[in-house]
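Input record (one chain):
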Amino acid sequence: MKPIRVGLIGLGTVGAGTFRVLQRNQDEICRRAGRGIEVVAVCRRDAAAARAVVGAGVRVESDAMAIATAPDVDIVCELMGGIEPARSLVLAALASGKHVVTANKALLALHGSEIFAAAREAGLMVAFEAAVAGGVPIIKALREGLTANRIEWVAGIINGTTNFILSEMRGKGLDFATVLAQAQALGYAEADPSTDIDGIDAAHKATILCSIAFGVPVQFERAHVEGIAALQAADIRYAEQLGYRIKLLGIAKRRSGANGAVGIELRVHPTLVPKDRLIANVEGAMNAVMVHGDAVGTTLYHGRGAGAEPTASAVVADLVDVTRLHTADPDHRVPHLAFQPGSLATTPILAIDAVVTAFYLRLEVADQPGVLARITTILAEHEISIDAVLQRESAEGEKHTDLIILTHDTVEGRMRAALAQMQALPTVLAPIVKLRKEELG
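The corresponding structure, as predicted from the sequence alone:
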């Protein structure tokens, strides 16, 4: 059987890694796919740099649209990133009768519904394993391996840059700015790191996981997103003393209505996790995703979430899947979002005020009698119960101290009202730090 023909749009780190893996493991890949997978064309503006990667036997184009519509290409592999022109190229490829493989999480989080609809209309596939957690096969696990389960929640470390920063802050006691500079020097963080440290990258990925886990349309605009730039070394230290570690988590959770509104929580934020959980011990630039299903219980998927060949591993796996199913009846393929298109749910994504979780609070308060009693009274008035309290002893001569409170689960809106009341106390001397806590049991 003739090889299936691939056009690579984007020959940067991931594109070059994909080409190398395909070349190096061609025999093994062919045995698995049932036919060869051959890159026939690549797009990169610097033709000499492209030629250095692919050699003389592959066509090099400077116009990406030429590959998206080329008659000798069966699968378009979009690895350029960004929204435009990636969106236009993917839609053009589908309109030209070509399957698409992409690692573009931002594109799918913002325009996934449009792209998947176009693919269904054309009877084509869009594969995107590499869009979330690099080489960790979490998309396939959710779409296929856990298909018997009613998924209750998904929680993941899905941005390696922020996990590296938090690991260094905890392990070395350094502040955020110092570790960010180190991450940039090591190549973990971009010169403009805002997409990572503001939680946007993780939110793109969490949006995709949420849609696959619960069978709802992609709704990035409904996600609640917080980053790590405001996180202080003191809070990492106090969390450790209380038996927790702080991780930037992407969380998607089904709410049955027992504690309030029925819907789905979709949120990204720094989170306290018990340090005996496996995910709390995922360090450096690694990724990990936990999934809880009603039949299987809790499962963990761990590995490298970025880099040339880990991401290429996922891209090539998608190419193999598309090759296997290239001639299959479209109705017999795995749906893009795991659920049949006509069965996607209208379950709402809940506003952050309706989210139910536990909290870590740090208050800088005047070191005088009655302060703790007044604060606990306010929490009680808002029906918020306390799990633990830690009070730092004041040094001699100091007139203020840190008061740390862990709460049990409560509705976020209720906590916000209590915080506003506490912040107004004359004995609370600085803005209150509020972090969320998840047991992930």
